[in-house]
Amino acid sequence: MVTYCIWCCDPTHLPIPAEKPVTMRSSLTMVGTLWAFLSLVTAVTSSTSYFLPYWLFGSQLGKPVSFSTFRRCNYPVRGEGHSLIMVEECGRYASFNAIPSLAWQMCTVVTGAGCALLLLVALAAVLGCCMEELISRMMGRCMGAAQFVGGLLISSGCALYPLGWNSPEIMQTCGNVSNQFQLGTCQLGWAYYCAGGGAAAAMLICTWLSCFAGRNPKPVILVESIMRNTNSYAMELDHCLKP
């Protein structure tokens, strides 16, 4: 009988609990999932609008012209006989100093920083949908604060943009009657509105949703799981020691 108990109590003969299948769990609540989706949408919208040269529409030499902060579509060059001809293609300015005005240079830096910040937060939010314990309630609120700052930077860039409408290059495109906060014959493009709308959504909606995005840590659940496994092994050992 003693031999039987020793054999039974050998740890190698104790039943091994079946491993539960690994499932992908999220560290976000249902509100947090909505927050991650909206964060991605606002970040992509603002960043795409930032790179597209459709913030301002005008015309020059009978050809349509469009601008962003650091890019332009269709520009004049000297042709044969020193006459001006329009090159119909889009591109960025050759250097940072070639951007038409100081206001647009500031707008380029500020808006770019805001877009980068929104993209980083959106990436972390998407990862939180796939990884457990990545985003806590406090971490979600900190990320919401970062979104507010990113949206504020983009909004500041949109506010700085009209200050550059008095540069000679813009005035040539806007009928030589444009000035700061006066478009002349030009009109604002859809990319400008998309950038501003994405920033506003990030500041107002995403920042508010982030307060309820993360899950509260629950150490009690972990302790209960350890105690349950310990009790299971203790019951198996007690069964083996009984004659």
What does this protein structure show overall?
This protein has helices spanning 2-8, 30-51, 102-128, 137-160, 168-173, 190-209, 219-241, and strands at residues 56-60, 63-67, 71-78, 84-92, 187-188. The chain starts with a helix and ends with a helix. It is α+β, with helices and mostly antiparallel strands and 243 residues long. It has 7 helices and 5 strands; from the N terminus they run H-H-E-E-E-E-H-H-H-E-H-H. It has a 5-stranded antiparallel β-sheet with strand order 4-3-2-1-5. It is found in: Membrane. One of its GO terms (cellular component) is membrane. InterPro entries: LHFPL.
Features:
LHFPL, 5-stranded antiparallel beta sheet, 12% strand, 243 residues, 5 strands, alpha+beta, transmembrane helix, LHFPL tetraspan subfamily member 1
User: How large is the radius of gyration?
Assistant: 30 Å
**Approximate strand percentage:** 5-15%
Number of strands: 5
Strand-and-helix sequence, N→C?
HHEEEEHHHEHH
Largest sheet, order of strands side by side?
4-3-2-1-5
**How would you sum up the major sheet?**
5 strands, antiparallel
Query: Please, what is the average pLDDT?
Result: 83
Total DSSP helices = 7
Shape: elongated
Structural category is: alpha+beta
Query: Low-confidence parts, pLDDT < 50 over ≥5 residues?
Result: 1-11, 220-225
Helix content: 40-55%
For the termini, the CA-CA separation is 7 Å
Write the layout of secondary structure elements.
Layout: H1 2-8, H2 30-51, E1 56-60, E2 63-67, E3 71-78, E4 84-92, H3 102-128, H4 137-160, H5 168-173, E5 187-188, H6 190-209, H7 219-241
Antiparallel strand pairs: 1-2, 1-5, 2-3, 3-4
Helix pairs in contact: 2-3, 2-6, 3-4, 4-6
